[in-house]
């Protein structure tokens, strides 16, 4: 009895101690089993990050599951899904549960994402919920031997069209010529590269080094030429005789010819690493994008939206694709064609007029007076494919006297108003003179019309005390010169800077000092005079019209300017164009550089019917001999086509 009475209190004490200990730990011996939600959320986080180390599995290990996910995600780069726990189905008292996970992949820049739900079984084992692993936990129907891959399909790039809808920039057949290293190797590959380079007129040493550095199965491109290129006719048979040489037919977006409208239309090429980085997911390696000109400015419109497919891919031991299935797809959307105002007839005539000008930059622009549409904008070979025609920044010289005349008209002058034309004029210590050969019989007090017709510098400069720089700027703006307009293409509409310097102000009257213009600028000046109101340029159809200047050109003002410019053709420096039906004209020269005497830019602007033209030559004695021949050639070719 003694022993029994002593044991019972000990049991009570031990049980009491355990209860106290459990209470102090915040739990109960009779607590409910854990909920499966925490295990499901850990799985969701692991699928989103690719690391399932914190997940408890019932039929695999976290390391094996993580390895499977790493392989499944390997071909999608850094792209990862957003995974959330939608719900958990868990019958009360059951050791089984089902978690529903919602996954979302932002696979493209479109508003549509790849989304799906997966049901994942969980089992309560020894008080812990464990995930039942299977490959389709990653995505529905993904097999144990499959991984995810994303395939992009670029749509056909849209065309750039001329004014009538004809194709300018479009896919044209080319030949990609290079060395196929599967057919030649070692020293012979280098020798073949040098031989091929000589036939392609590219650097032999550089191409040979490129071929040597390439892998044993590489095709190393040497040159891409149009299928119609004379090089293929001339050297095609010899190219075929080069061991390892290969000519691969392909399609490439190109203009009508290598030079036709090239600075305007631009070019297309493979996206650079910098462009891809700046695109924020829009561009990917291998994408074709506009590199310059309209192709670059309107790239998103022309490129369209690529198609996309998420695939479940089965690969062999060597990495080759054995099978693939589509899990999600977005259909590609073709780009929208861009219609320009270019007239092929006018552009070809302009290109032909400058074709022989290889020594120095030249340009010619033709604008439709009634609409401001750019019909042609060409540069000569000496311009090196620059944007000189539409965006050049050169001193316009005496062609700017059209604006100076308008400023004087606004001060009350007429075409008959007398201006003092002297041999020379000194302004604040700076001597200004007329061009060499200025006719002596046109000196003295002469009508403003005569001063413009024979381009007397001193007559216009003499008016600098009467017209402020601000008034000169306003007159230029009324004729279409406006530096700050946001153009829908690469262009420059001129600049007449404000100044307090008296000499610079005086020089502005004859288009020098810091006055700048492009051939497009001066064509618009002529068009504005001819139309009787400020003309804004149009190169891309469908764009909103550009705003008019604060002080538009008045019809009565334009009438005075037309009278003056008509006199240039009838009796002055523009007589050389009269036989071609030109009604209005103005020549111009502008000194530049450090030579003594300095070189001069040569200009000629002209108007006939509904066309205004500006021609520019970087170096010329005067507008009559240095620029007018371009307009003559242009109009003759244009009239014949």
UniProtKB/TrEMBL annotation:
Cross-referenced Gene3D superfamilies: DD-peptidase/beta-lactamase superfamily (3.40.710.10), Penicillin-binding protein 2a (Domain 2) (3.90.1310.10), Penicillin-binding protein 2a, domain 3 (3.30.1390.30)
The keyword Signal is assigned to this record: yes
Domain Penicillin-binding protein dimerisation: 153-321
Swiss-Prot/TrEMBL keywords: Membrane, Signal
Annotated Penicillin-binding protein transpeptidase domain residues: 363-606
Entry-linked InterPro entries: Beta-lactam/transpept, Beta-lactam/transpept-like, PBP_dimer, PBP_dimer_sf, PCN-bd_Tpept
Sequence similarity: Belongs to the transpeptidase family.
Name of the featured protein: Penicillin-binding transpeptidase domain-containing protein
């Amino acid at each position: 009895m003694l022993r029994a009475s002593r044991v019972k209190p000990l049991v009570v004490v031990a049980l009491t101690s355990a209860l106290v200990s459990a209470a102090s730990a915040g739990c109960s011996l009779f607590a409910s089993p854990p909920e499966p939600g925490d295990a499901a959320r850990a799985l969701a986080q692991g699928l989103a990050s690719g690391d399932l180390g914190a997940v408890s599995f019932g039929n695999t290990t976290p390391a094996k599951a993580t390895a499977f996910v790493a392989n499944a995600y390997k071909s999608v780069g850094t792209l990862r899904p957003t995974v959330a726990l939608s719900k958990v189905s868990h019958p009360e008292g059951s050791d089984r549960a089902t978690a529903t996970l919602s996954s979302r992949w932002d696979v493209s820049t479109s508003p549509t994402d790849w989304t799906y739900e997966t049901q994942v079984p969980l089992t309560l084992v020894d008080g812990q919920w464990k995930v039942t692993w299977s490959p389709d936990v990653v995505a529905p129907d993904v097999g144990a031997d499959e991984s995810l891959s994303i395939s992009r399909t670029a749509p056909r790039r849209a065309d750039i069209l001329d004014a009538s809808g004809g194709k300018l920039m479009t896919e044209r057949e080319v030949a990609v010529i290079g060395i196929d290293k599967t057919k030649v190797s070692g020293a012979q590959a280098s020798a073949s590269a040098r031989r091929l380079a000589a036939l392609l007129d590219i650097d032999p040493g550089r191409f040979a080094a490129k071929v040597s550095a390439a892998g044993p199965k590489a095709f190393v491109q040497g040159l891409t030429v149009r299928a119609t290129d004379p090089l293929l006719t001339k050297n095609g048979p010899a190219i075929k005789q080069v061991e390892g040489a290969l000519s691969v037919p392909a399609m490439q977006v190109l203009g009508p010819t290598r030079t036709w409208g090239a600075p305007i239309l631009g070019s297309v090429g493979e996206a650079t690493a910098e462009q891809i980085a700046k695109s924020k997911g829009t561009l990917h390696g291998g994408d074709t994008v506009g590199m310059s000109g309209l192709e670059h400015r309107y790239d998103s419109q022309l490129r369209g939206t690529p198609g996309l497919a998420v695939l479940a891919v089965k690969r062999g031991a060597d990495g080759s694709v054995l099978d693939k299935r589509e899990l999600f797809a977005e259909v590609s959307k073709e780009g929208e064609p861009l219609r320009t105002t270019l007239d092929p007839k006018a552009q070809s005539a302009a290109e032909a007029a400058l074709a022989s000008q290889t020594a120095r930059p030249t340009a010619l622009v033709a604008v439709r007076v009634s609409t401001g549409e750019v019909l042609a904008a060409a540069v000569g070979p000496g311009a090196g494919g620059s944007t000189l025609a539409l965006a050049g920044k050169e001193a316009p010289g005496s062609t700017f006297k059209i604006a100076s005349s308008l400023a004087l008209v606004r001060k009350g002058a007429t075409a008959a108003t007398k201006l003092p034309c002297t041999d020379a004029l000194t302004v604040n210590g700076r001597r200004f003179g007329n061009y060499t050969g200025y006719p002596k019989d046109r000196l003295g007090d002469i009508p403003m019309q005569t001063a413009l017709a024979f381009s007397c510098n001193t007559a216009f400069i003499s008016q600098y005390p009467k017209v402020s720089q601000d008034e000169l700027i306003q007159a230029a703006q009324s004729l279409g010169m406006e530096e700050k307009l946001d153009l829908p293409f690469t262009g420059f509409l001129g600049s007449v800077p404000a100044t307090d310097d008296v000499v610079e102000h005086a020089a502005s009257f004859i288009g020098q000092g810091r006055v700048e213009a492009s051939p497009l600028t001066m064509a618009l000046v002529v068009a504005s005079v001819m139309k009787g109101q400020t003309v804004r340029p149009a190169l891309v159809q469908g764009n909103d019209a550009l705003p008019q200047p604060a002080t538009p050109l008045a019809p009565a003002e334009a009438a005075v300017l037309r009278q003056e410019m008509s006199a240039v053709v009838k009796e002055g420096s523009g007589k050389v164009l009269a036989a071609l039906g030109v009604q209005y004209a103005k020549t111009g020269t502008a000194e530049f550089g450090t030579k003594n005497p300095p070189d001069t830019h040569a200009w000629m602007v002209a108007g006939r019917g509904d066309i205004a033209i500006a021609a520019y030559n970087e170096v010329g004695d005067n507008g009559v001999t240095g620029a007018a021949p371009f307009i003559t050639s242009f109009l003759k070719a244009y009239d014949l086509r």
